[in-house]
Amino acid sequence: MDRQVKGILGTKLGMTQVWDNNRVVPVTVVQAGPCVVTQVRTVDKDGYSAVQLGYGAIDPRKVNKPEAGHFAKSGVAPRRHLVELRTTDASEYTLGQEVTVDTFRGLGAGHGVERKHRSPGSIGGCATPGRVFKGVRMAGRMGGVRYTQQNLVVQAVDPENNLLLVRGAVPGPKGGLVLVRTAAKVATLPEGGA
Predict the structure, then answer these.
(1) Architecture of the domain defined by 14-31+107-188
(2) Level-2 CATH architecture, domain 35-99
(3) What b/e sequence results for 114-153 when a residue is b if at least 16 CB atoms lie within 10 Å of its CB, and e otherwise?
């Protein structure tokens, strides 16, 4: 891989509409970041170039010792979620650096992004398909699969409120964790805008 990837973790807040060239455009609102850099991987030391981002507050008492040591080495408070992005420009990041939606503002509106989310698992045995072996019904497993949605377009960036508006409907529940990153394939708008 030889490309610079920008990304941020956030929470899906829901959908709304905005005006663009006298047209109403549906957008998904993502509370994006702020994230902090918890690790920087280099080709010399790790064999590949990547940056690890942390997002979401967590009670330090709920973090095990190895995780606590990892965050202490980075000089940041413990975070609930971690994600690693492989990127050629990882050396430009520093431990403890804050990553905000300004990352996407520099790319400009209309830039293509991908959104990753994990499908919900079964709750209390509901929606769990069973399997039958010799007359015995056994519980199956459903959910917990990571999905990537491509060809999404950034409609607007609101750095004051840490909001990212992504054009169109993005699947997943409200309050779900999402990773928004620059796309491998750049999305293009259809003729005439939306």
Answers:
(1) Beta Barrel (2.40)
(2) 2-Layer Sandwich (3.30)
(3) bbbbeeeeeeeeeeeeeeeeeeeeeeeeeeeeeeebeebb
State how far the alpha carbon of 49 is from the alpha carbons of 53, 82, 109, 115, 143, in Å: 14, 16, 27, 21, 31
User: What's the pLDDT tens digit per position in 6-65?
Assistant: 888 888 999 999 888 889 989 989 898 889 999 999 999 989 999 999 998 888 888 889
Question: What tokens appear for 130 in the block?
Answer: 């069973």
Domain boundary assignment for the chain: 14-31+107-188, 35-99
Q: Tokens standing for 182? A: 């620059």
What is the pLDDT averaged over residues 152-157? 82
Query: Residue 73 has what DSSP assignment?
Result: H
